[in-house]
Amino acid sequence: MQNTKWKVRYSNTIISLALLISVIAIHYLYGHNFAVSVLSTWLPLSGKVIIIDPGHGGIDGGATYNRILEKDINLDVSLKLKKMLEKEGANVILTRSKDISLDHLNKKSEYRHKRDLISRVDIINNTMPDIFLSIHVNAEKSSPKTAGPMVFYHFDSVNSRRLAQYLQKKLEEAYAEVGHTTPKRKPYGNTSLFILKNTKPPGVIVELGFITNSRDRQLLTTQNFQTRIAKAIVLAIREYFG
């Protein structure tokens, strides 16, 4: 296993070096502007810093259905998304990369849950990324027919709203591609959600679907659909920065 990981890292390094050498050569032969154009085509998110925040974790399972935990879906999709964004040239930071909560990172509240949220906000504000995405799964136990993605943004942030619009559209398309028709929604402007209210950079909370809806749940727990929605998020981010 370690040998395989080393080979993958070595391969990625060789590819990166080859791209760098190619860009330098193009810069020398054709000039700066053309080299930048080529680099933007190969790595459209080059230079962008993106934080992905997989919601919940550790003692906090988030929304649940039988033994299915939101925290696991959040992390699985976030890890896939990180790899895809890095291939596009982005510098990606995860607030958590394993099954842990973040309440131990500060002592700013007597309540564990609030400390966890504060830690996520601190990571985002201390890093000041170009954008952040907090990844979640929704639940509506009283209405199991409620389905599909929902994206929340801070009402006063124009850039967050624009990012949310791209994400909502691409996520709904991802569901439609597998034959699951979900409601057409507009992103939800909000002024009270803790992470949106207390962060400085543009960002959104992405509810990938409803764990309480049987079809959403079936899709969100499969590797293929997790990959599909991660790709949809990448496409939305590319459009946002395009």
Question: How would you describe what is shown here?
Answer:
The chain is α/β, with parallel strands linked by helices. It has two domains: 1-42; 45-241, Aminopeptidase, CATH 3.40.630.40. It has helices at 2-30, 32-42, 70-87, 112-127, 158-177, 194-198, 214-220, 223-241; strands at 49-54, 64-65, 68-69, 91-94, 131-138, 150-154, 188-190, 203-210. Strands 4-1-5-8-6-7 form a six-stranded mixed β-sheet. 38% of the residues are buried.
List keywords for this structure.
6-stranded mixed sheet, Aminopeptidase, alpha/beta, 2 domains, two-stranded antiparallel sheet, 242 residues, disordered N terminus
Give the amount of beta strand, in percent: 15-25%
CATH topology of the largest domain: Aminopeptidase
CATH superfamily of the largest domain: Zn-dependent exopeptidases
Q: What is the annotated CATH architecture of the largest domain? A: 3-Layer(aba) Sandwich
Helix segment count? 8
Q: Kindly report the spatial arrangement of strands forming the biggest sheet.
A: 4-1-5-8-6-7
Instruction: Characterize the biggest β-sheet.
Output: 6 strands, mixed
The CATH class designation of the largest domain is Alpha Beta
Helix fraction by DSSP (H/I, runs of at least 4): 40-55%
Low-pLDDT ranges: 1-9
